[in-house]
TrEMBL record, chains A, B:
<feature type="domain" description="HTH lacI-type">
    <location>
        <begin position="1"/>
        <end position="55"/>
    </location>
</feature>
<dbReference type="GO" id="GO:0000976">
    <property type="term" value="F:transcription cis-regulatory region binding"/>
</dbReference>
<protein>
    <submittedName>
        <fullName>LacI family DNA-binding transcriptional regulator</fullName>
    </submittedName>
</protein>
<dbReference type="Pfam" id="PF00356">
    <property type="entry name" value="LacI"/>
</dbReference>
<keyword id="KW-0678">Repressor</keyword>
<dbReference type="Pfam" id="PF13377">
    <property type="entry name" value="Peripla_BP_3"/>
</dbReference>
<dbReference type="InterPro" id="IPR010982">
    <property type="entry name" value="Lambda_DNA-bd_dom_sf"/>
</dbReference>
<dbReference type="InterPro" id="IPR046335">
    <property type="entry name" value="LacI/GalR-like_sensor"/>
</dbReference>
<dbReference type="GO" id="GO:0003700">
    <property type="term" value="F:DNA-binding transcription factor activity"/>
</dbReference>
<keyword id="KW-0238">DNA-binding</keyword>
<keyword id="KW-0805">Transcription regulation</keyword>
<dbReference type="InterPro" id="IPR000843">
    <property type="entry name" value="HTH_LacI"/>
</dbReference>
<dbReference type="InterPro" id="IPR028082">
    <property type="entry name" value="Peripla_BP_I"/>
</dbReference>
<keyword id="KW-0804">Transcription</keyword>
Length: 335, 335
């Protein structure tokens, strides 16, 4: 009835008004303005209840992502994931509810949404806080499609979109090798998540491939992505005679750079460095940093795409999509 | 009826089960687990329609924030705002829908939500893309409370939570003055938003207070928060004989630092620098950067607090809340 009224007020068809109000199909900017005006004039509030009963859909998806303390640039990564996911959902008229959990309390990953909302969203994008499927299995109790983003879990069959962490680590290591480095240290995290695991695995694999010995003194896996952990790890591997450092996280890389500065070590002449994640500050280190660039936004976008396919009742062509990360070559790797 | 079933299955009271399922009151972790299990077992889906009709609430709030291209650390700021807002809403059982708009297309600020959702959310947290109330007035057509975050608009009476941009700029300028600087340049943006305006106004005010002449050659207001804009602005004010630079944005500050490096200018001996926003990379510049630290998370949290008060039908004690920003003193300011 209200739709009919708005159609009469605007001179637009009932179909157009209905699509505009339900977000089921895009309409022109001008029509949207007319409809908005008319809807405001008659104080139109769509009957979400009727909508949901008719379509069994709220047209709302939740994204569950980790967050660190503020002013920590690692938050940028998941903001970019979120923003990419949102952009794709928006094109299909879906809203995005965001839920965050602290990396330090992974067991809270699912408590950021009230039960009411959990049982009412249409789908979930999840950055899992753990490697074990059992720990996240209850998310499937929601009875809606779930797509994993950035990190996989062992077991389960959930679709996944993430970077090619192992391959890009191998690539970075080979660049250091080609620059003549033979004592290449790995600084990463011993977190129970797949990005930490895959980067470490890439390091071990390439050592073997290149015929380099595995020296435990050159391996530092820390328990936090922080500058102080990066500094401590760098101190240790420098003490063990590293001639190159691969830092598998941006905060650990920042700490590495700072420790090298404080010890007055010349990069790359004395020690070469390649870092993970290519934020703009990598351009102001001395020399500018060679770093891995991930496409976080495309990761989020692709995860939404998979989820929308599942919501349409289709099976995605690929259950696992790897978004290529690439090395941005500057000067810190040597040569 | 389902609530009664779950109460029987778990041995908990109907009241407890009802609060747990509706998110209206916190219940113990253990009870929550029991209720979740039982709810999953009987495939309970709460009747959101009935809920909304009874309470006229969806218990969902929207946050509308700007986003830049990816790998840009300015995105951290709004992620921290979002995360702070979410933490407070979660305590009261509200969900957060996120909508982003590109800073370069401010007119799109409101189109990130479908009309369906706009007319159904309980309240809005808005980082306005403009200075003019007229440009955002239609947001009030939603008929729900709106709280502005980070930036005000001219006119209107919307509640606001933001930093004390003017005061902290004055403070930073006085530090540079006390370090003996008399040709202090301002690098900022000529964006139509209140953070840009207030930081610039702080600069002009303090010049007058200190009896320093206003030299247009020392003022660069750029049209983007980018490293290249920062570099260009730094080139210009260095050419005009600046002995200190106040960079009113983190990306512009990064560009400033890079330009100083490339020209081989010693900081702070030749040119002193204070920047806005205190990300960790400020610790690896040579020397470490003195910078303004904003409390983005508290800003988001406080905005949620105001919105929740409005949703409870209360008027907040203060319509405008300023979250103090503070200088983090390191070495780039001189002395």
């Amino acid at each position: 009835m209200s739709i009919k009224t708005i159609a009469e007020m605007t001179g637009l068809s009932i179909t157009t008004v209905s699509h505009a109000l339900n977000g089921t199909r895009p309409v022109s900017q001008r029509s949207m303005e007319l409809i908005n005006e008319a809807a405001a004039q008659i104080n139109y509030r769509p009957n979400l209840a009727a909508q949901m009963m008719k379509t069994h859909r709220s047209r709302t998806v939740a994204i569950i992502i980790p967050a660190t303390e503020q002013n920590n640039s690692t938050n940028c990564f998941f903001f970019d994931v979120l923003n990419g996911a949102k952009s794709r959902l928006q094109e299909s008229g879906y809203e995005l509810i965001v839920s965050t959990y602290p990396e330090s309390r992974p067991q809270d990953f699912f408590s950021g949404m009230s039960i009411l909302h959990r049982r009412w969203i249409d789908g979930i994008l999840l950055v899992p806080p753990t490697l074990r499927y059992e720990d996240i299995a209850r998310i499937e109790d929601c009875g809606v499609p779930v797509v994993l983003v950035d990190r996989w879990v062992k077991g389960g069959k959930l679709p996944l979109v993430c970077s090619n962490n192992r391959e890009v680590t191998v690539e970075a290591m080979k660049v250091l090798y080609q620059a003549g480095r033979r004592r290449i240290a790995f600084i990463g995290a011993d977190f129970p998540n797949s990005t930490a695991v895959e980067r470490y695995q890439g390091y071990l694999d390439v050592l073997e491939e290149l015929g380099l010995p595995r020296d435990e003194l050159l391996i530092c896996r820390m328990d936090a992505y922080s500058m102080s952990c990066g500094m401590e790890a760098a101190r240790r591997v420098l003490g063990a005679g590293a001639d190159a450092i691969f830092a598998a996280n941006s905060m650990l890389c920042l700490g590495t750079v700072k420790e090298l500065q404080e010890q007055g070590i010349h990069v790359p002449e004395q020690v070469a460095v390649i870092g993970f994640d290519n934020y703009e500050w990598t351009e102001i280190t001395n020399p500018p940093l060679t770093a891995v660039t991930q496409n976080a936004s495309l990761m989020g976008r692709t995860a939404s795409e998979l989820l929308l396919q599942l919501l349409d009742g289709k099976q995605p062509e690929q259950r696992v999509v790897r978004i290529p990360a690439a090395l941005t070559i500057r000067q810190s790797h040597g040569l």
